[in-house]
Specification:
The structure is a single chain. By secondary structure, this protein is α+β, with helices and mostly antiparallel strands. It has helices at 5-14, 43-52, 112-118; strands at residues 35-37, 57-64, 67-75, 82-85, 88-92, 98-102, 124-127, 137-140, 146-148, 152-155, 164-165, 169-171. Strands 1-5-6 form a 3-stranded antiparallel sheet, with no helix packed on it. A 3-stranded antiparallel sheet has the order 2-3-4. It has a 3-stranded antiparallel sheet with strand order 8-7-12, with no helix packed on it. The longest helix is centred in the N-terminal third of the chain and has 10 residues, at 5-14. It is globular and about 70 Å long.
Length: 176
């Protein structure tokens, strides 16, 4: 062991890096370094995470009332592939395999299909066309939601041209 502080520092930073435990069964989805909860808004981030690990991933599409919509990711090849749907947590294991489980901490993000099942066209909303929380627009939806660009669920609203991400729409509950 060297007593020179500079050499000690160089030895420390060039040593084999500490790799945290890849996954424990009692982890929480939000802090585990090897778990990702899949949502419509982080689809490409998770896909890149898998690509960087050398794992094949592709968008998973399903039929929704005659319309094909993205509902998650297909991970891996052949008989060993798995499907992670929006709202699932993808877990990376020591051996490089992945499993899927329901998330412990739901994000509350809705897919276009979820939105359409809950809210009809004409639903009153507060919309944030730019930055969420700034310049709210009280309006109603004027279309069903759809997935824009293969990843972002959006809907049209009155008095605004262009789709607004569902994460930027707050439903206004109307008293019965």
């Amino acid at each position: 062991m060297t007593t020179n502080p500079l050499l000690s520092h160089l030895t420390a930073i060039t040593a084999t890096p500490f790799i945290p435990e890849l996954h424990t069964d009692d982890c929480d989805d939000t802090s585990c370094v090897r778990c990702r909860t899949l949502t419509p808004s982080n689809l490409y981030e998770v896909d890149t995470w898998l690509d960087n690990a050398g794992v094949f991933a592709k968008q998973f599409w399903e039929d929704d009332s005659g319309e094909l919509v993205i509902t998650g990711l297909r991970i891996g090849h052949g008989e060993h592939r798995i499907v992670a749907k929006f709202g699932n947590t993808i877990v990376r294991h020591y051996d490089g395999s992945h499993t899927v489980r329901p998330t412990e901490h739901p994000t509350g993000e809705l897919t276009a299909a979820d939105w359409n099942a809950r809210y009809p066209v004409g639903t009153p909303v507060t919309a944030y066309p730019g930055v969420r929380g700034e310049n709210p627009l009280t309006t109603v939806t004027r279309s069903k939601a759809w997935t824009l660009g293969g990843h972002t669920p959006v809907a049209l609203v009155e008095n605004y041209s262009g789709g607004i991400a569902l994460t930027h729409l707050d439903v206004i509950e109307v008293a019965a």
